[in-house]
Every structure is written in C-alpha cells, then in structure tokens.
Amino acid sequence: MTENINTLLIGGFSSGKTHFGAQLLARLQKKSGELELREAAPSVALFEEALTRLAAGMSSEHTARQMFGDIKIPTADRSGRGIDLIWPEYGGEQVDDIASKRLISPRWRKRTRECDHWVLLIRLLHIKTEDDLVSRPLDKLYTERRQADNRPKENAFNWSSQALLLELMQLLLYVREQSTCRRLYRPKLLVLLSCWDEMPVTKMTIPGSVLASELPMFYSYLRANWDEDALTICGLSSLSRNLKPDVPDPEYVDRGPEAFGYIVLPDGTETSDLTLPIARLAVGSKL
Ligand SMILES: Nc1nc2c(ncn2[C@@H]2O[C@H](COP(=O)(O)OP(=O)(O)OP(=O)(O)O)[C@@H](O)[C@H]2O)c(=O)[nH]1
Ligand SMILES: [Mg+2]
C-alpha cells in the first residue's frame, strides 16, 4: 500500500529550503537512509539547478519570489512501506508575507488545509532577537525611540521576529480551522533549525534547548500547543559548511555533495541521514 504524504514546508527568505530539497533528493537517490527512492522521480526539474551546482561545489541562487511548485517523490521506508512525498519549492518571501501582511493566497490556503505534516525551517542566525540593555544601551534606545516618534505612525512599530513566527503559525492553524483548545496532534510538526553549522554551538547541544534560549516565547508557544508526540525539534545542516556561489569547494567536487550534510537529533546526537526526520514525520513515530 502506498501513502501520499503531503508536506507543508514552511520557511522564509534564505532559510535553506532549496539546498535541503536538493540534498534530500540526492540522499533518496543514493538509497542509504531510512527513506529511499522506490522508482525514478517523474521530474526533478525544480531542483535541477541546485543539484548541478552542488555537484560542482557551489551554492545556488535565491528562488524567484513568485515560484510555487512541488514534486512527487516515490519513496519507501525500511519496512517496505511506500510513501509518496509531495515536496514543495517556492520563493521564501511568500511565507514572510503571510505574517507581515496578514495575507494568504488561495494556493497557500489549499496547501495548509491539505497537509497534515508540517516542516518548519528556522535559520536562527537570520532571526533578529529583541534589543536589550546589552545589545543596545539605554541612551541609544531612548534617542532612537524619540526619532521614531517623529516618523509617520505606521513606521513606529515593528513586530519582533518571534511574534511574527508565532503569528504565522496561528494564521496557518486558523486557515485550517484548527482549534487549539486541546493540544494538537495534527498537523504533526517538525522544526528544523537550519544552517546549524553556522551556529556557535558545541557537539551534543540539544536543538530544543537552543530554540528555548534563542526564541523563548515561540518555544513556549509550540510546547503549549502541540502534543509532545506530535512535535520534534532537530538541527539541520544540509551542506555542513558555507559554500560560495562562484568559487567551487574542492572537497565537494572530490567527495560529492552526498558526503556532506547532517541532522542533529533531539538528544543532540548527529546523523548523516538527512531522510531520517522526514521518514519519522511521515509515519508518525518519534525520533
Ligand atoms: N552554512 C550553511 N549555509 C547553507 C546551508 N544551507 C543553505 N545554506 C546557504 O543559505 C543560503 C540560502 O539557502 P537556500 O536553500 O537558497 O534558501 P531558501 O530557503 O531556498 O531561500 P529562498 O529561495 O530565498 O526562499 C544559500 O546561500 C545557501 O548556500 C547549510 O546547511 N549551511
Ligand atoms: Mg530557494
């Protein structure tokens, strides 16, 4: 029997969606992980450029803002269960716009309603945290506030990144008409802290603790609203390192992109199997 697992990949501008998609496809093709390709994918055109560039040891371009598509990837897990993964690819501004403009397009509405498996990509180094006395001394804050008071009113207030993330999740749940009176068991939520290699963390760091210390309000929101069995927090490094768009990385060319990339599991251990959290999300079993 084959199941259709429609994944809602949620990630803003430059959160790592395209490189993760390409590396995931390459791992599925290699057939060395928990999930593997059952037969050739009908078309990998959406990730063709990223796959080609990674093979040449270079990163690829930002996805066009209007792009919105998906590919159906026929996979099977270790027990032979057939899982057709529906994996999206789009320009990350679409997600940023949902929360900041309170606008959700019909195709995003449809996806949000249809998908019971959500993957949220958060690139912590790109998330602005609130100012405090250490990051911005009081006299500077005071002057800036006074200047802000003289600006037109609509510019005076900016949502914090945490509040925007929280608003985004609430909006998506609202579109599904999903009540949060009880802790959520559906949609299952996998949070991937992307570009983990660029974080100043040591080995065996627990991804959930990093999220709790960097975005405490958002972490509390997730813990308060999702059932423990339906929420997983992992670290993700699709590339293991920073690649340049114009200078090939010689090690990538020598060893191939499949030799790079890892997942940090909820207990802090690392695995090179990028398919593992997706496989577990699909079958609904905890990591
Ligand atoms: N260090 C490091 N950089 C990464 C990793 N994954 C992606 N990047 C870099 O992060 C940038 C954004 O990655 P993308 O995969 O293009 O992000 P995206 O979410 O598709 O972005 P949009 O197309 O703008 O929506 C690129 O310059 C990548 O080279 C990683 O695991 N580690
Ligand atoms: Mg992209």
Description of the structure:
The protein has helices at 17-30, 45-55, 93-101, 106-114, 138-150, 161-175, 207-214, 216-225, 250-255, 276-283; strands spanning 2-10, 35-37, 68-77, 82-90, 117-122, 188-193, 231-237, 262-264, 270-271. It is 36% helix and 19% strand. It starts with a strand and ends with a helix. The longest helix has 15 residues, at 161-175. The relative contact order is 0.19. It is α/β, with parallel strands linked by helices. Magnesium ion is lined by residues 17-18, 63.
Shape: globular
Q: If helices are DSSP runs of H or I spanning 4 or more residues, what is the number of helices?
A: 10
**Biggest pleated sheet:** 9 strands, mixed
Helix content: 25-40%
How much of the sequence lies in strands comes to 15-25%
Chemical compounds bound to the protein:
guanosine-5'-triphosphate, magnesium ion
| Strand numbers in spatial order across the main sheet | 2-3-4-1-5-6-7-8-9
Distance between the termini: 24 Å
Poorly predicted regions: none
Number of strands: 9
H/E element sequence: EHEHEEHHEHHEHHEHEEH
